[in-house]
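Feature request, filed as a ticket because there's no other form

It would be nice if the structure record came with a short human-readable summary line next to the tokens. Right now we just get the raw output. Example of a typical job, pasted below so the devs can see what we mean:
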Amino acid sequence: MLVVDTRAVAMQRDRSQDAPSGIGLRIPGTPRAYLWFGIATAVVLTAVYLGIEIPIRGYGMSVDPTLRRLFDLDAEATVPAYYSGAQLLVTAIAFATVGTQWTGARRRDFNIAAVALVLASLDEIVSLHEEITTPLSRAFDFGRPFGHSWWIIPGFFLAAALAWVLRNLLRSLGQKSARLVVVGTAVFFFGALGLESISSWFDAHSLRLMTEIAGEESAEMIGVTIVLYAVLLKIAE
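Raw output as currently delivered:
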């Protein structure tokens, strides 16, 4: 049982304005269990997607369209989309929980991270950024490597700005958790921005695009899993 008792932390004495406070909470399982569950789920969902798409794209075989739609890594309202959305939401709750240990600027940083993750959760389920950028994507094409994925450029600057705003959050997490958050975030954006930036290189029905989608989405899921693990380690202290 992972025990979250921030009332114990509240007994500490912090001379800064960010004095700890908090609530008591119990979460089933251990941080390592969440880590392996997340990695295993990402691997399984990716394997199912590849198992459906390879026969279709590589050999022209017929697969039940409902099944294909249900496990499409690159669509909304699917099993992978709902899982990724739930994963991001749980991570948001974990950040907000750690934030209850503090007041002032430190709590604000954790709350900002939680809100950003909630928005990312909504985007994962209903593809908010695609709904917003589709009209512009029809009008603009910047060529390779971005193509119609021009939004990756402002997305990179938005991610950098958020990282700058939340730089002090890493200090509050401690060295081990902070290092894992950095690694997990890097893995996530490698998929979300790095791999997706080359998606326009490939034909919509090609094996290459399928491989890019599999790498992109699995990187996002594993990245979030590592971040969640890092925050749960902090909660377990």
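Something like this underneath would help us a lot:
Residues 2-236 form one domain.
Residues 11 and 202 are 57 Å apart (CA to CA).
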